[in-house]
Amino acid sequence: MKKAMCKKCTLQRLETLNKFTSGFGLGLLEDAGRISHETAVEKAHNEYAAYSKQLPDELTEVEKAYLDTLRDMQKRLKDGGGNDE
Fold this sequence. Notes:
mainly alpha
C-alpha cells in the first residue's frame, strides 16, 4: 500500500512539474539527453568564466559598507560584545 501511494505521489509531482515547465516552453526530459557529465561541467565552467569577466573589479559602496559593518561587529564581539551606541 505504501509503495503504491509513493508511486502515485511521484506521478503527481512529475505531472505538476511538467505543467510548470511547459509554461516556460519546456517540458520534462524524455530521455537522459546527449551531453556527458564532463561536457556539461566544462560548459558550466566556461559560462561562469564569461560571466565573471563582466563583473566589476571593485566592490560597490553597499558591499564595502556591509564588509565594514561585519568587521565592526567582529571587533565588538572580540572586545566583549558591548554595545557602544
